[in-house]
Design goal:
Two copies of one chain form a homodimer. Chain A has 16 helices and 27 strands. Chain A is about 30% helix and about 25% strand. In chain A, helix 9 links the parallel strand 10 and strand 11. Chains A and B meet through helix 13 of A and helix 13 of B.
Chain lengths: ~525, ~525
């Protein structure tokens, strides 16, 4: 068995709880900056003190070892509530701050926590949804004065004034967080994640990306996302790096924030890169300290364009809430590949009957852990979904991919986004890649739209570059000479921008209409 | 990937449905005897015809592809109902004929079948338990005349007179049977088993044991047990062998039946061998054609004694309802080992945190399938139990074992039967093995009994050889010189016979009393 060298050098063993990891880091670099946010700064020692006080606060209120729900913006307080819950042996549940109404209430109810941590703004949203058993609410800023008498309001001062608790020993295989999947289609699943996945996963990322003391993460990722929790926060702790927190990703202020914070690293997705590439090139494009981007899957074209323009090395990693990171960049990883399987996982590409496919063939990406507790323990209150995902004792991702002859994994697309047209499986990402090479397009998305004859037809939604007057007819003609006939989109829609989730992932479901301003090749050219 | 040679030679591919397997066998040896029972005989062609008529009967009654419950004695009709259900694409549920009352009703309800196949005797037991949705009952003998009007009684003649159906294509990964675990402790689990497990599992057994056309199985195993279904029936089909059915195992008539049927092979457990060894040796001990015993785990002492006395080669295989066979005998397997892992499985011995243990160390036997659908699909209506058994994507058996340096697996005992005495884990099988070497004991069992001070104390239940007047004091003294002090039983009970299940497995739960005739070393010698 292989262990991540930076991690074992830090903790002196092959795994640890989040609390043990933090303690080891604090012992090593107590005075290094850990969190910077809105002009304030916490060293590792100061954050450790805050986390221990949070654990002490939980003890004092009979909440040690329990579930703690956070509905917070990106903030140091959010991190202290997580670390404090962990130090007390409890489970942290971060709710996506973008949620509202029935969806938010469902996630809140399912968290089954007695304590909610939020702020005044958050309370306006979540307050009306509080389940009756959640009787205590901790506010990180001011306590509102319109609270119902059944709610016990607690002020952040009671955290700051609490006696720091001694960390509780906690098995590396025990539950660290309940984390909801994004649920872009269907109900979010509650994923039970063990300490070991965070600690070893971060160890491998530090090993592969070379993060170190002195690195500063441009930290825009929500803490309700595995990227914010593991790829950024835990990775920074293993490396001894600093988190420069910003409220959210902003294409407009990204570079100013990066320069202002002296950021050397960032986490992102392909769509984030595409958004940043849409801005006109300028003389400041390389005026920054960004050294490396930790990217979850990107096409070779986007990688090359971004690296060339901004001078930032981009390295691909692949995974999902249930298991991160599944692959790691290694020297020689070709553009468009997400690297080799992490030593903690056996990764395979399987066919519909769970039989392994040879190199080059596309199928479902599946995996088995090589060691215990490096992946989810299961979907909470949904053992049926867990068993389904674990068929034949493989974890079945939702993604299609292929291995090349050198053993590099190539992510193709989500299984459910593959377009099935007249018996052909069409990869949305392959269609998009062709159109991204068209000089007049800034971004695009391919989706399947229902069709009574073909099952599905291909639709392209394209964002022309500023000043372009490209017409769907031009794009259709381009497609006819650049891709197989069965892949050529029948429908083409031009738009000013594509719709994204709060972490910059494309909302494909919103793009499947064919009415109104959508150009139809059949109507334009007549049936063949 | 490796495939079982006799199977692929027969079916021309690496797996098949049960129906396809049977068809391939019938095409090869249509006129070989397949089933002998109570003076009647069916060739493979005749059994194929009967199975196709059963499938035709199901079609005619709107039951094709459905679940069929059988509550039958060992019989050709039971087999035809299984094969017929399979040929129609349905699922066969065999209920243990030994069950009664509430347990039987529970299993019957959970089977969720609309058709019950039974006989007059069975109807007396199961008739009063019929759930309302089970409206059709097929009788293999006479139809009782006291049926409620809500029950539609069908006679076996309607099977014999049905037009033979064409077999329905059926994916090798689809459900073939619902099979209940023995449930000696707690409620039986309903195990959903795919066709592939039966077909490939039997292929490996034929490959390892060398079964062939002309072999005759002494077939006493209930068809409600995986041994009866897979190790005997399916194995016979792959080999082209004959099943000589007898109603049940009988220590008294075993050898007469074996001689009468010209049996060359049998399936059994260690306890069966021990029962046969209890009989006094005689001149007829080697007057039979038995060539090989297919044994599910046996101590070296029993193996050696049986082989030496009866001249039958015994080969060990290990598995459980959820996955069979996990190990296979290979040349050089040492006595007391159950062989090497089947090529279809990766087998590991893991510690409590699912970390692999080195050769020599005892831990839980766990496995992962190397190919799809060679094990259960899950526990029906119990996904929680499935997820628990599949933690870290290993299937966790209930058994303790160890690998030796040559890679042979040694079964030690059931995890739950290990006795935990004052911090020491005591293997019941190791205690039993020592006492089995005592010249005056015919059989014995070690169990843990609750103790307020030690957690558990060791109790031995021993069956003296006929004519022996051995006293517990003698056995205690023997133990003191033959085993570690912490293993020496405090309680010893002498008895005439041990309690066994219908397939000859020891009922340990019935042996844990310490009152009445039980000798207590503490009372006899005073506290130390």
């Amino acid at each position: 068995m292989v262990d991540p060298p930076p991690l074992t050098a830090l903790i002196g063993k092959d795994t640890a709880s989040i609390g043990e990891l933090l303690a080891a880091r604090v012992a090593r670099t107590p005075d290094s900056p850990f969190i910077r946010c809105a002009g304030r700064c916490w060293t590792y020692a100061e954050a450790w003190d805050a986390a221990r006080r949070f654990a002490g606060f939980l003890q004092a209120h009979g909440l040690a070892g329990q579930r703690i729900t956070a509905f917070l913006p990106k903030s140091p307080e959010a991190l202290f509530s997580w670390f404090g819950a962990s130090l007390s042996g409890g489970v942290w549940v971060a709710l996506n701050r973008a949620h509202r109404g029935a969806v938010l209430k469902d996630l809140l109810d399912r968290a089954r926590a007695r304590l909610l941590v939020t702020d005044r703004d958050g309370w306006q949203i979540i307050g009306p949804l509080l389940p009756p058993e959640m009787t205590q609410v901790l506010f990180t800023d001011e306590v509102p004065d319109d609270l119902a008498p059944s709610v016990r309001a607690l002020h952040w001062a009671s955290v700051l004034n609490a006696a720091p608790a001694e960390p509780v020993a906690c098995a590396p295989g025990s539950v660290a967080t309940l984390l909801y999947t994004s649920g872009t289609t269907g109900r979010s699943k509650g994923v039970l994640l063990p300490h070991t996945m965070y600690v070893r996963g971060a160890g491998w990322l530090v090993d592969s990306y070379g993060f170190r003391v002195g690195d500063v993460f441009h930290d825009w990722m929500p803490l309700s996302h595995i990227g914010g929790q593991l790829h950024v926060t835990m990775t920074a702790i293993v490396a001894g790096a600093c988190l420069a927190q910003v409220p959210a990703f902003s294409r407009r202020s990204f570079w100013d924030e990066v320069r202002g914070n002296g950021a050397t690293a960032f986490f992102g997705f392909s769509s984030i890169l595409a958004l940043l590439l849409e801005a006109p090139a300028g003389p400041d494009d390389r005026n920054h300290a960004l050294r490396v981007g930790l990217i979850g899957s990107m096409p070779a074209e986007v990688l090359t364009a971004f690296e060339r323009r901004f001078g930032v090395r981009l390295l691909d990693t692949y995974g999902m809430t249930e298991c991160e990171p599944l692959t790691l960049p290694v020297p020689g990883t070709p553009p468009g590949s997400c690297g080799w399987p992490s030593p903690d996982f056996k990764v395979a590409v399987l066919d519909q009957e769970d039989r392994p496919l040879p190199a080059g063939a596309a199928g479902r990406i599946c995996m088995r852990p090589r060691r215990p507790f490096v992946m989810m323990l299961g979907y909470e209150a949904d053992p049926e979904a867990t068993v389904e995902a674990w068929r034949n004792l493989w974890f079945h991702t939702a993604d299609r991919g292929r291995f090349d002859a050198e053993g590099f994994l190539h992510f193709i697309d989500r299984m459910k986004y593959a377009i099935r047209r007249g018996g052909e499986n069409i990869s949305t990402s392959e269609v998009e890649r062709v159109f991204l090479s068209h000089p007049e397009l800034a971004a695009c998305a391919a989706v399947g739209v229902p069709d009574t004859v073909m099952g599905e037809e291909v639709k392209l939604i394209a964002v022309p570059r500023p000043g372009s007057d490209v017409h769907p007819v031009d794009l259709h003609a381009y497609a006819l000479t650049h891709m197989a006939a069965f892949m050529v989109p029948r429908y083409i829609e031009l738009t000013g921008a594509l719709p994204y989730t709060d972490v910059g992932k494309l909302k494909r479901e919103e793009l499947t209409g064919t009415g109104g301003r959508v150009w139809d090749a059949r109507a334009a050219t007549g049936p063949k």
